[in-house]
């Protein structure tokens, strides 16, 4: 068995998982399992999933730096970048006839351009 059926952790040859699951008997030690759950909850409380960007303005700047914005920028520069508009809001996925038409037009344009180049070279 590669993964624990109780918590999904990789067993790597262990007979007993950290969550209390025993691979030989298939039973779960409830005390160990409860400690495991509490430990997992405490780690989740500190994870990035729970970091909010709301609050006072310093939390916003610290959060932006943690999420990858250049830490050498001043708070004013960070705020300016965060308020910039996002230009490409349209869906880039094209399907069916619209995609076929665009591809055909591009092929025809490329063919015409290559013919024009050949004519100029003659």
Can you put this structure into words, describing what you see?
With 122 residues, the chain is mainly alpha-helical. Among the domains are: 1-50, no CATH class; 52-82, no CATH class. 48% of the residues lie in helices and 0% in strands. It has helices spanning 30-44, 57-66, 75-82, 96-121. It is elongated, with a radius of gyration of 29 Å. The termini are far apart.
* Class inferred from helices and paired strands: mainly alpha
- Specify the biggest β-sheet: none
- Residue-averaged pLDDT, rounded? 75
Order of helices and strands, N to C? HHHH
Beta-strand portion reads under 5%
How many individual helices? 4
Determine the N-to-C terminus distance: 71 Å
How helix-rich are the residues, as a percent range? 40-55%
Radius of gyration: 29 Å
- Which word captures the global form? elongated
Number of E-state strands: 0
Unreliable sequence segments? 49-55
Features:
122 residues, 4 helices
In short:
With 122 residues, this protein is mainly α.
Q: What's the arrangement of secondary structure elements?
A:
Blueprint: H1 30-44, H2 57-66, H3 75-82, H4 96-121
